[in-house]
Amino acid sequence: MVYQCIMVYYNQITLNKYITVSTFYSxxxxxxxxxxxxxxxxxxxxxxxxxxxxLMLALIVSCDEKETIVExxxxxxxxxxxxxxxxxxxxxxxxxxxxxxxxxxxxxxIYRGNSLYGNYDRVGTVYDENPDPYDYSFEYYxxxxxxHYYGVVAFDEGNNESDFSYIVTxxxxxxxxxxxxxxxxxxxxxGYDFSSCSxxxxxxxxxxxxxxxxxxxGGIQKFVVDDSMNDIQDYGYADNFDVVNYAPTDGWAxxxxxxxxxxxxxxVRTGAAPYHYVKLYVEDATESWVEFWWAYQxxxxxxxxxxxxxxxxxxxxxxxxxxxxxxxx
Length: 329
What we know:
Layout: E1 3-8, H1 12-33, H2 38-61, E2 68-73, E3 85-88, E4 93-96, E5 105-113, E6 118-127, E7 137-139, E8 148-156, E9 167-170, E10 174-181, E11 191-192, E12 211-215, E13 221-225, E14 230-237, E15 257-259, E16 264-270, E17 276-285, E18 289-296, E19 309-310, E20 313-317, E21 323-327
Antiparallel strand pairs: 1-2, 3-4, 4-7, 5-6, 5-8, 6-21, 8-9, 9-19, 10-18, 11-12, 12-13, 13-15, 14-16, 16-17, 17-18, 20-21
Helix pairs in contact: 1-2
């Protein structure tokens, strides 16, 4: 139960002044009783009674300059969940949010829509009694390359529901762990075709090869792409594969090459517009081979590795318990 605390203050000096003024006013009213008619006297008696009742109440609750706190129970709806985020995985989506500040939160309902505006179906419930209910919520068995929209509603022990959270998008994508050899060591296993969505290396000079491993004259290993159809850039150091949430639209290396550095993330843009986007994370490397994680977004033109947020929405429920989301007017 949520409590709204009302702070009630009484100042004894102010109260004394009020009693003094009220007493003189009451005496004045009593004096008038001797001069007025019977009907008017009845009305005047009621006024005098009211004045004395107020004085008695003030004396009873007076705290002599001490604070009195009165707890008034107010069963309010929770605030909307905050910090909503989602992560595109291979065949499923990972969703998380920050815990609500209210002490009586019972759980969270997760809703999914197939478009930003329209119907959202409840696809899961996470109860607050779990150890870390707001850390992750997984939705499995999704098709890669299909975009979905998610939001979260908090509910409390009184079954009050919050407003809808921000909406985030997620599009599951293919991923894998691949080892490619430097072209001088094994040219037949130095290249890869991202659209194959496999973990099978191929020759660097195959017509379908998007990327291969080569060593320059200084002995530095590099990712190399065919810059007539593909682009690459080093996105920098990262703790893990999932740090990069979206693909950039510029900043591509003019040479079509990027030095291979362990724990760095790279973004690749393949094919013709609207393009397919790929991210790579170098797990390990030696002078002869490189092992890296890859994630390929099969939805053309989709730059989201993880989503943005969409505020300014209104909601209502239909007869089947679905949320209907619309833009704010």
